[in-house]
Amino acid sequence: MSDPYVWRDPVADTTRLDQVREALDWRIERFEQEAKGAERERARALRRSYGLMTSAAMSWGEAHASARRIAAILRHLRQLT
Q1: pLDDT, tens digit, 9 for 90 and up, residues 15-34
Q2: Which portions of this protein are annotated as coiled-coil regions (predicted)?
Q3: Cα 26 versus chain centre, distance
Q4: Distances from the Cα of 81 to the Cαs of 8, 24, 27, 30, 36, in angstroms?
């Protein structure tokens, strides 16, 4: 089974990473709106972590590593909802 987060084309990688960022941002925002109390704080913490990860993604290698961390956050959010 191939890893969907292993990308080969740098141009396509940039587009795909942007799509992942947008999808994750929407998902966290939605979760934040629906959550209450501690769950809302957890969603805000995830959003802050996500923002630091994606803003630091300068090179392809960093973007790839960031995408893998984003995927881990998505899996975590799916477990929460």
Answers
A1: 666 777 777 777 777 777 87
A2: 21-48
A3: 10
A4: 32, 14, 11, 11, 12
Structure tokens at 79: 């477990």
| CA separation, residue 11 to residues 3, 8, 35, 49, 68 (Å) | 18, 9, 36, 25, 18
Nearest-CA neighbor of 10 among 71, 73, 59?
59
Residues of the chain with pLDDT under 50: 1, 7, 57
pTM over the 0.85 mark: no
